Amino acid sequence: MHIRPVKSTDIPAMAETYVETWRDAYRGILPEAYLESMTVAETAKDLAREMSAAGVVSLVAEADEGGAAGLITGGIDRRRDRVYGGEIFSLYVRPAYQRGGIGHQLVTQLVAHINRLDIFTLKVQVLEDNPCRRFYEKLNGVRLACGRIRFADTDLAACTYGWLDTDLIGTTF
Question: Three-state SS across the chain?
């Protein structure tokens, strides 16, 4: 497994990873019709747009046999939070590669990149019903708040996790 910055040629494989993981993680949470309407082509356009924005770091976990096993995008907090300067925008690891440490490696690499931008605090918003949200708790993320968001014509519970010091991510005490 090799984690590296995204190249434009990675976008199609990343879009496939994105669609696959959304359908896996959000089945039973988001409307089935929404999940089935997702296309790799549209997702690729959205990812390319997101990754080209200023202050965004995009990394891919490249599988040994080729293709994207996972991806992460993040950077400067989009809401310009005065406490949490960094944000994980998206983190997805294909189901076949989950529970192997790839997510942790992706977060660690993202943190290294944002630390170079003098950002040492981080947050992420995750759907409360997503069982993968416990991943952030295992990385010592503190639940900061929970509330309701509207997505795909559905009201959903979402929680925000944060780290006041990115050195605390994944540290055991």
Answer: CEEEECCHHHHHHHHHHHHHHHHHHCECCECHHHHHHCCHHHHHHHHHHHHCCCCEEEEEEECCCCCEEEEEEEEECCCCCCCCCEEEEEEEECHHHCCCCHHHHHHHHHHHHHHCCCCCCEEEEEECCCHHHHHHHHCCCEEEEEEEEEECCEEEEEEEEEECCHHHCCCCC
